Amino acid sequence: MAASLTITRILSAFLILILGIVFGRIIGNILKRTLKNVEISALLKRELNLKVEIEGYLSNIVKYSIYFLTVITSLTQIGISSKVLILILMVFLVIVGIFILLAVKDWIPNILAWFYIIKTQKIKRGETIRIKGIEGQVSHIGLLETKIKTKTEETVFIPNNAFIREEVIKK
Hints:
Number of strands: 5
Order of helices and strands: HHHHHEEEEHE
């Protein structure tokens, strides 16, 4: 009797796992298509000058969250204690937090520098400047980087935090 109950629990946990994987993949694909139709990446590129494929990131976050919840539900079905599941959740959240911090570690100084540049008007669009041995006209000040057109018509992208760390000479 106990063996058949264990087999039933294992089979139901396996079925939950398979359905969760299918459901996660379907929901992830639907979300990705929906966000592409809304053109959220084009909006971010146009408004904030961010070249990020946000559809893929958001759909993957949702898909893997569903996978994670499915694994937790399957483990609960087998009979693993909730304390172990909470520990697994905490480890998962710490890992996700570390990945997020590593992903945005370069963005934060550049965004703060952008606020500084805009507020103090250290440089302005159309000015001719020299920084890091590069001389040219400022053509765009973006959230993360600034475009400079050189005399040879080359476009150089300089991270905004360089305008705080480096000497800027206005011509």
